[in-house]
Amino acid sequence: MATRIQSRVAVATATAAALFMLAGCAAGADTDTSSSAEPTEGGMPLPEFSQELHDSLPAEIQESGVLRLATITLPPYSQKGEDGVTYEGINFDTVAAMEAALGIEIDLEVAPTSADIYTGFESDKYDAGISPLSDIPATQANYDFAVWIAEYVVFLQQKTADDKIEGLDDTCGHTIATLQGGTAQKVLEAQQAECDTPIDISLFADQDTAILAVKSGRADAAFSSQIPLTYYVSQDDTLEISGANSTDNGFPPFWVGAFAPKEAPIVPVLLDTFNALKDAGTYDFLLEKYGIEENAMDEFGFNLAEDE
């Protein structure tokens, strides 16, 4: 069952942005600007409302006043806070800033798995996803991407593991935990053809349970994006990362951000919105807040994956 929830920051920001939009329209003022509004209580700088961005939204979203986004539980992008109820993370901070720029409400729903996001597109439940789908040639065949964070795929193991998994060739004959419906699953399945002893691919709905499988010894390693796995290592000194910043783990250079089915008109708008966040200082703030400065992109892009 999916969870629909907004962060406290997002709710407050949406209200302020809506009031700003109404005031600007009433005065007939030029409200398009790249400067920043008042920061949040946590110090995150917010972009000013942009009439130009608002007007570029698809007509049905302008009419409803709601943009429907989906994500999955994947720290530090999206996870429950200390109260065990309220969601927080990069995605929720990003949504708060996007609401300010676009002047609409953003309904960010936490789906059980990535596969649920894909079926949600088919049933017109979501307008777009935000993280964690990777912009690589295989996914770009079906989805368009607005990307703003560089990523890698790595392995996570216990420090005391007897067999170290340093790359895909080491996965043969081992149990590897990964997310159901994710790109890493497809890479492991393709690797099977190279193995004399098959990989035991253990699929999980969320990263927490995948990591628990490694910690309990039910899996030899987890295989997933570097930013989330690095987060788990920072929380548990019995774990370690291997293959960091590598492009030899079955993935070409790739990026994450927002995505939607091919030709969806919302994706270029989301890219322009990300650029507004960068101009306002929101992007640099988020990179520093979550310790992912090395994953910064100098220029954001649309469908950056290329066939090798």
TrEMBL record:
- Entries under Gene3D superfamilies matching the protein: Periplasmic binding protein-like II (3.40.190.10)
This protein is called: Polar amino acid transport system substrate-binding protein
Q: Tell me which species this is from.
A: Conyzicola lurida
**Signal sequence coordinates:** 1-29
Task: List, alphabetically, the PROSITE patterns matched.
Answer: PROKAR_LIPOPROTEIN
Which keywords are on file for this protein? Signal
- Kindly indicate whether the keyword Cell division belongs to this entry: no
- State the source organism's domain of life: Bacteria
Q: Which SUPFAM superfamilies match?
A: Periplasmic binding protein-like II
Instruction: Specify where the region named Disordered lies, as residue ranges.
Output: 30-50
Domain annotation Solute-binding protein family 3/N-terminal: ranges? 66-294
**InterPro entries assigned:** Solute-binding_3/MltF_N (IPR001638)
